[in-house]
TrEMBL record:
Similarity comment text for this entry: Belongs to the lyase 1 family. Adenylosuccinate lyase subfamily.
ATP-binding found in the keyword field: no
Alphabetized Pfam families for the sequence: ASL_C, Lyase_1
Domain of life: Bacteria
Name of the featured protein: Adenylosuccinate lyase
Pathway: Purine metabolism; AMP biosynthesis via de novo pathway; AMP from IMP: step 2/2; Purine metabolism; IMP biosynthesis via de novo pathway; 5-amino-1-(5-phospho-D-ribosyl)imidazole-4-carboxamide from 5-amino-1-(5-phospho-D-ribosyl)imidazole-4-carboxylate: step 2/2
Gene giving rise to this polypeptide: purB
Task performed by this protein: Catalyzes two reactions in de novo purine nucleotide biosynthesis. Catalyzes the breakdown of 5-aminoimidazole- (N-succinylocarboxamide) ribotide (SAICAR or 2-[5-amino-1-(5-phospho-beta-D-ribosyl)imidazole-4-carboxamido]succinate) to 5-aminoimidazole-4-carboxamide ribotide (AICAR or 5-amino-1-(5-phospho-beta-D-ribosyl)imidazole-4-carboxamide) and fumarate, and of adenylosuccinate (ADS or N(6)-(1,2-dicarboxyethyl)-AMP) to adenosine monophosphate (AMP) and fumarate.
Length: 461
């Protein structure tokens, strides 16, 4: 065999530059992970058949069950390689798993006697679709959701910590009514919580109903067995998935499209946030913690670039491109099946890998942020024009004529200062009650944040 390739020779950066960051996903969504789940499904189907009351097939002893399930628990890279070696002859990956499993039963008389019930009445897709669902279940539970939860927790902490820190808004890139740093972060938290629920709530479907979904082989062998009920029991009780009773040869993958779309939506929210943070760093609202030895530019020594947020944006884009293809292609199959889904499904790990890489980059970037309160305050102090909204709204309340038009003529396209705004309020011709004038005169852009602080604090509840 040729020597293993260096990560420097990897075509995908997931297996090269970023290989260590993919360690949690690799055993779940790699070809090893697929083989592992195939063995699990074959074993559970085999054991379930022994419990089905079929003529000539007695229930396995506890020792036999332990041995079979031990093959799953102790499944190793060496086992996966042995299956690959068999595949060189079979040119069929699922049949190779069946033959490998049967080879492991040779020295166990009880199991060897029943070995023709390994893969009994199954088509390859009975094994594959359940395996893919188990792979996605593990990846979602063990890696994807915890990565998103880490970001949500960090952003929630930031929203509460900065709930009362005023910040100038910009709509269309122009100065707008002030908000608080915490409220803007709370907006992202609220969106992410909804998106996270959509990922978590997708039911992972599976089928075990034979070559074209009708239990043909099952019934010809045992006509009196309720095979649909049996298959449902295996899928739901033994494998922990949701049974799909109506399929062709393949489970139609609609749930996968739903799951991948939900992940894409989450990633899109995080692209939006990554770009916003990039902008806030550019404005000086956030500083980034320095790291000894790190270089921002090969030519400009002063630079501390927002690379974590740029990397996150780029990787989320790659993930979404792949996830979109998966969600659009997988539900389409010619007649009762074609093979295009199989080759595409081998890239689930690549698609989710780029998403996880994005989550990691974003988390690292958030951990480096330090709020620059002076920059935020200075930005507000140069934007007194934003109080025009407050003044004209109070004028409306008291029935003064054309308040919007007056403030438009006074402020639009002109630099505004504290003195100019307070001069407008103090004008004897402005017929506002004295207490209202006093309230407006005491107001600064930093005070004009509405319910922002309380809304930000509430996001942690």
């Amino acid at each position: 065999m040729p020597p293993p390739l260096s990560t420097l020779m990897a075509l995908s950066p997931l297996d090269g530059r970023y290989a260590p960051k993919m360690a949690p996903l690799r055993p779940l969504l790699s070809e090893f992970g697929l083989m592992h789940r195939r063995v699990q499904v074959e074993v559970e189907w085999f054991i379930a058949l022994s419990d089905a009351g079929l003529e000539g097939f007695a229930p396995f002893s506890e020792a036999a069950r332990g041995l079979l399930r031990g093959l799953v628990v102790r499944f190793s890279e060496a086992d996966a390689q042995a299956i690959k070696d068999i595949e060189k002859t079979t040119n069929h990956d699922v049949k190779a798993v069946e033959y490998w499993l049967k080879s492991r039963l040779e020295n166990q008389p009880e199991l060897k006697a029943a070995s023709e019930f390994v893969h009994f009445a199954c088509t390859s897709e009975d094994i594959n679709n359940t395996s893919h669902a188990l792979m996605l279940k593990a990846a979602r539970t063990e890696v994807v959701l915890p990565s998103i939860d880490k970001i949500i927790a960090k952003l929630t902490e930031m929203a509460k910590a900065f709930a009362s820190v005023p910040m100038l808004s910009r709509t269309h890139g122009q100065t707008a009514s002030p908000t608080t740093v915490g409220k803007e972060i709370a907006n992202v938290v609220a969106r992410l919580r909804t998106a996270r629920l959509r990922i978590a709530d997708v039911k992972l479907l599976a089928k075990m109903n034979g070559a074209v979904g009708n239990y043909n082989a099952h019934l010809v062998a045992y006509p009196n067995k309720d095979w649909e009920a049996f298959s449902r029991q295996v899928v739901e009780q033994r494998l922990g998935l949701t049974f799909n009773p109506y399929t062709i040869q393949i489970e139609p993958h609609d749930y996968m499209a739903e799951l991948f779309d939900a992940v894409t939506r989450t990633n899109t929210i995080l692209i939006d946030w990554s770009r916003d943070v990039w902008g806030y760093i550019s404005l000086g609202f956030f500083k980034q913690k320095l790291k000894d030895g790190e270089v921002g530019s090969s030519a400009m020594p002063h630079k501390v670039n927002p690379i974590d947020f740029e990397n996150a944006e780029g990787n989320f884009g790659l993930a979404n491109a792949l996830l979109a293809h998966l969600s659009q292609k997988l539900p389409i199959s010619r007649w009762q099946r074609d093979l295009t889904d199989s080759t595409v499904l081998r890239n689930m790990g690549v698609a989710l890998g780029y998403a996880v890489l994005g989550y990691d980059s974003l988390s690292r970037g958030l951990d480096k942020l330090e709020l620059n309160r002076d920059a935020l305050a200075g930005d507000l102090d140069h934007a007194w024009e934003v109080l025009a909204e407050a003044i004209q709204t109070v004028m409306r309340r008291h029935g003064l004529p054309q308040p919007y038009e007056q403030l438009k003529a006074f402020t639009r396209g002109k630099p505004m200062t504290r003195e100019l705004m307070q001069g407008f309020i103090n004008d004897p011709g402005l017929a506002l009650p004295a207490e209202e004038k006093a309230r407006l005169l005491a107001m600064t852009p930093a005070d004009y944040t509405g319910l922002a602080a309380s809304l930000a604090q509430r996001i942690g509840s």
